[in-house]
Design brief:
The chain is an alpha/beta fold and about 500 residues long. It has a single domain (about 15-255, about 265-320, about 360-485), classed as TIM Barrel, CATH 3.20.20. It has helices spanning about 30, 45-50, 65-80, 90-95, 105-120, 135-145, 150-165, 180-185, 210-235, 235-240, 260-270, 275-280, 285-295, 300-310, 370-380, 405-410, 410-430, 475-485; strands spanning about 20-25, 85-90, 125-130, 170-175, 240-250, 250-255, 315-320, 320-325, 345-350, 350, 355, 360, 365, 390-395, 435-440, 460, 470. An eight-stranded parallel β-barrel has the order 1-2-3-4-5-7-14-15, surrounded by five helices. The protein has a three-stranded mixed beta sheet with strand order 6-8-9. The protein is globular. It starts with 20 loop residues before the first strand and ends in a 6-residue tail after the last helix. About 55% of the residues are buried. The protein binds 6-O-phosphono-beta-D-glucopyranose. 6-O-phosphono-beta-D-glucopyranose binds near residues 177, 248 and 392. Belongs to the glycosyl hydrolase 1 family.
Length: about 500
């Protein structure tokens, strides 16, 4: 068996290393609802989702899964599944309704205290993302959010409040979710808040997409490093926690069996994963980006480099699927691929009319389990086996027009997806990768950003009128996987 062939191993929880964390993942705006309750302030996503035409069917997160009122029920669901970790994010505007320009909202602190305490009571470790896309609209309006370097100061202020308020009980922190995806979706394509883009990346004329994505990631990385510096100086030793970041991580394969496409794969990866992780491990952007972007790439000062270098205890990996990559540096492809910010590559899910894997309900996610093993190997080698957590992995059910509730709940394909991805992950672990956890996206069907409620990753379906949680077949599978500790080897 060569590397990464998809062998259907029967896997069991006990095949994974002792203490391995298994759980589910969510984020605040996608599930909480209650946008104006108990003093929460207006967020960039409240504004964006209420802008006509931005979200599929003009939906928004005003109610979402009503988790704000049903968090106890959701924690019970997780407890009965048998998970030992839950990844969630803190809504910035519940804690600081006006960002740095106002007071702390004690109700927000109370809400997350209740979540954390109830998780711990049931033996579930809170795995907390400080910032997952939603930020105070006031910061957006005052200076354009992540475009401004003032966001570094404001994020550190927010993070410090989180460490002070919750750090006695939270042992797993990640600072920011997927900086590269925010740059791409929010500042190139304009499909995430605040919706900046310019041609050829989108049809709006706000922002200057040549530089904005680079500046946004630059500010996020420095905000991360400053928050970590503060955590390590004042909290970490006392609280005994660990801190990292979460990287959006697609795996790529060459479209053609040619050297130029293999090089293109390296560039595609560099412009996605090392863009974020190289500075945090080595203190500098990847060479691939330097050689293409030259002076367009923002520069770190010597002091910043030493602050960034080594500023992660672990890497959070969000991984769903793989794509093919075609080189566009030698011959022109599309307008987008001819732009240096893409690294002169074109990505596609199809080769000679054949998709790289089964198609899911999200057009860019194809089911390619071997990608999990390849990705983990790539991260392991490049970053000298820093501990990793799979912070998101999930299957988006294709939407069928005539779908019955029975079809929706019989999510056999989701079960097959997780089994195959877990088997691939296990192969990587057996080859020495230091992976310590796996979290399914998502506990519940939820507000999937630009796609509204139309695409669904949940183990539980949520009735949009009553908000009742209805278990899919995958709940049965996950709980029996989690409760079965018989070794298969
Ligand atoms: C990740 C995000 O990018 O993917 C999640 O961290 C998101 O917040 C998930 O919901 C699924 O992505 P999408 O684009 O299908 O909503």
């Amino acid at each position: 068996v060569q590397c990464c062939d998809e062998v259907e191993d029967a896997i069991s929880r006990s095949d994974f290393p002792e203490g391995f964390l298994f759980g589910t993942s969510t984020s605040s705006y996608q599930i909480e609802g209650a946008p104006f309750e108990d003093g929460r302030g207006l967020s960039n996503w409240d504004v964006f989702s209420h802008t006509p035409g931005k979200i599929k069917n003009d939906e928004n997160g005003d109610i979402a899964d009503d988790h704000y009122h049903r968090y106890l029920e959701d924690i019970e669901l997780m407890s009965s599944l048998g998970v030992n970790v839950y990844r969630f994010s803190i809504s910035w505007t519940r804690i600081l309704p006006r960002g740095i320009y106002g007071d702390i909202n004690p109700n927000g602190i109370m809400f997350y205290n209740k979540i954390i305490d109830n998780l711990l009571l049931r033996g579930i470790e809170p795995f907390v993302t400080i910032h997952h896309h939603d930020l105070p609209q006031e910061l957006e309006e005052r200076y354009g959010g992540w475009i401004s370097l003032l966001m570094q100061r404001d994020f550190v202020h927010f993070a410090e409040i989180c460490f002070k308020s919750f750090g006695d009980r939270v042992k797993y922190w990640t600072t920011i979710n997927e900086p590269a995806l925010v740059a791409n979706y929010a500042y190139m394509k304009g499909i995430y808040a605040p919706g900046h883009c310019s041609p050829p990346f989108g049809n709006c004329n706000t922002g200057n997409s040549d530089v904005e994505p680079l500046i946004v990631v630059h500010n996020m990385l420095l905000a991360h490093a400053k928050a970590v510096e503060l955590y390590r100086k004042h909290f970490q030793a006392k609280q005994g926690g660990t801190i990292g970041i979460v990287a959006h991580s697609v795996m790529y394969e060459p479209l053609r069996d040619e050297e130029c496409d293999r090089q293109a794969v390296n560039r595609a990866l560099a412009f996605l994963i090392p863009w974020v992780l190289d500075p945090l491990v080595f203190g500098e952007y990847p060479a691939e980006m330097h050689s293409i972007l030259g002076s367009q790439l923002p520069v770190f000062s010597l002091k910043e480099k030493s602050l960034l270098k080594g500023s992660i205890d672990f890497i959070g990996i969000n991984h769903y699927g793989s794509l093919y990559v075609k080189d566009c540096s030698l011959s022109a492809c599309s307008l987008e691929a001819d732009h240096p910010i893409t690294g002169f590559v074109e990505v596609t899910g199809i080769r000679d009319g054949v998709p790289i894997g089964d198609q899911t309900g999200f057009s860019w996610f194809y089911v390619v389990p071997r990608g999990m093993q390849k990705l983990v190997d790539y991260v392991k080698i490049r970053y000298h086996n820093i501990p990793m957590y799979i912070t998101e992995n999930g299957y988006c059910s294709p939407l069928k027009p005539d779908e019955t509730m029975h079809d929706l709940l019989q999510d056999v394909k989701r079960i097959d997806y997780h089994k195959a991805y877990l088997a691939a992950l296990l192969r990587a672990i057996r080859k020495g990768a230091d992976v310590r956890g796996y979290m399914i996206w998502s506990l519940l069907d939820n507000f999937e950003w630009a796609n509204g409620y139309e695409i669904r990753y949940g183990l539980y379906h949520v009735n949009r009128d009553t908000h009742e949680r209805i278990p899919k077949l995958s709940v049965q599978w996950f709980s029996s996987f989690l409760n079965n500790t018989i070794r298969t080897n």
